[in-house]
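Worked example (supplementary).
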Amino acid sequence: MRQRLFTPGPTQIPERVTVAMSQPFPYHRGPEFKKLFAEIAANLQYVFQTQSEVLLLTASGTGGMEACVANLLLFGQQALVIVAGKFGERWQELCQAYGLETIVMNVPWGEAPNLDELKKLLQMHTEVAAVFCTHSETSTGVVSDVQAIAELVNAYTDALVVVDGITSVGVLPFYIDKWNIDACVTGSQKGVMVPPGMAYVALSERALKRFETQQRDELLKRRNLPHYYLDFAKAREAAKESMTAWTPAITLLMGLRESLQMMREAGLENLWDHYAQLAKAVRAGIKALGLELFAQAPSNALTSVKVPPEIDGRKLTEALRAKYGVTIAGGQGPLKGKIFRVTHMGYYDHLDMVALIAALELALRDLGWKFEMGAGVAAMQKVYA
Amino acid sequence: MRQRLFTPGPTQIPERVTVAMSQPFPYHRGPEFKKLFAEIAANLQYVFQTQSEVLLLTASGTGGMEACVANLLLFGQQALVIVAGKFGERWQELCQAYGLETIVMNVPWGEAPNLDELKKLLQMHTEVAAVFCTHSETSTGVVSDVQAIAELVNAYTDALVVVDGITSVGVLPFYIDKWNIDACVTGSQKGVMVPPGMAYVALSERALKRFETQQRDELLKRRNLPHYYLDFAKAREAAKESMTAWTPAITLLMGLRESLQMMREAGLENLWDHYAQLAKAVRAGIKALGLELFAQAPSNALTSVKVPPEIDGRKLTEALRAKYGVTIAGGQGPLKGKIFRVTHMGYYDHLDMVALIAALELALRDLGWKFEMGAGVAAMQKVYA
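After joint prediction of all chains, the assembly is encoded as:
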């Protein structure tokens, strides 16, 4: 049976990327690699919409998140973390693992952060060194207004604005420089359409300046958080020579070169529109089947859908996989069994999404859900037309 | 021009591995991935010669090394590090990055650690919590007697024996359990013949017991070194379900499944013999060209060769690459320009090594080195016959 991957990461990979990754790979200290690196670095700046630096780390997105905490913060500093789902919790756990004083703004899962509440917190904690947030919360399917968050943070504090952009970079409208974002992480297996295994971290001039001071100043140096593999200083030093500090995931970089070229060819704004279109059609299809969306402010990277009480969420996922070869994601943490999630980001077009909703119709029928067969795909077609 | 990679990592990849990595990949939380994971875990035990656990980390070998330091040691503890090259220095830098009291046994580059000296150090520092060493020091091409090192450490201390096995696992005779090694790291791009991007860490029952105590005991817990992404506890918890804690480098794991199967088919002892044969032939070829070996106790993972003073080491590497498509590695740190290094580990046979020495002959002639053309390859053939 043909397998189709519709999880909100890893996402489906373009054939061009697979072919690129199958070529013989260069030595990571040789001239061919340096060309590869330089081309990637320039195109990542485009995808992140920044003139500043984007670092490459061989790690999952979580490793990129840890790098931000371990490099940018100091012992004894305060961090404010906006937690609206599993990936917000990850920022919290990371800050706490490093012993930072962590102020948590809890947002009900499924909702976007309340900006008034954030404002109050910022007014109370003006000494906070960094604010951590999640642009597209993959566990709930909710998008945050990171532009407004950054404005508030910059209005009330000197804190760095650190964004988990793992399912937003290349997917949702996002301007790192224009919005004054100081650090932003993404992973290889999401909007940039490469298999998992790498994280990319964009850093603002301001973040780099602060980091350099912390590296240089004798008193601050003593307060640096311990780390080595994920060190920004080593990554930057190597990047000056178009290299990585450690042996990188070379085949993934070869795929990345290709996918970034494709993203340049398509144009970032067109990609954002494309994902918005896919999301719109899928959501029309979902509603036509009598299902309800979960996210109150839906991210166009994915759609999260409530599992009706009459249906066993695990059975639905299992039926899709076993009978129709379609893999989607269930809920995480407190949402286990309560929602399911399907991607839009990645290498997908309208017809892929029609196939997804068609499979969902078949699986729902198998589980006894009542709806008009074909209503989902028909609704999608109307949106597309 | 056809490119041939002869660096001591990354190494040449079997075609079967490339094909495996080009297949559609499964979702890392689904049943197909769990099968993949379970098969890999079992075969890694074979390759490491251990009945205990082998953890998978998405990181280069350095990330695996850091994981050992950050998980197994505690604030305020002493570490003894044997430094006989660049990778020994890496253990030292890692221990120091985490603020551990680090006792360094410096070994001249090119030599193997002196066991009498180690014995004296161990007698002086019986409280040491871990001893870090390098089985095959890739920067010098020297092999250490880790069996004897482990015996000494266990005779005089309760320290854990932590081994960088990055260019030894799957390449040199190595029995983790039998030799009482507590932790051993390797990378994907060396003896296991997969592109770079993953680290594998074998942990002894004793190391796991100590780790568990440190996780449980309230007083010890406060002394844990900060870390998150590379956490052994999270990796072990996920491994119980045949999963990884974070999204792993799935395509590399698909390649790994294939390469581990190939290693099982070949048989580990046969692979060790095979690499010894390749090393023997290459060294005979090198000597027949009038060149001198650098390592006093050569590791069969690679051969390091002194660049004669009459020749510019960088020009030699460059001539091989540009004119003959052959990539080798130069010296690192203080050995830059003074030695060159060629791999034996990886997917290579006698004929590959003949091609390597043939290219070396041509490049040496270009640079004016005097020798009998063909003497190198002829000497290799005699060894093989």
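Two points are worth noting when inspecting this output. Chain B touches chain A through 52 residues (CB under 8 Å). The mean pLDDT of chain B is 98.
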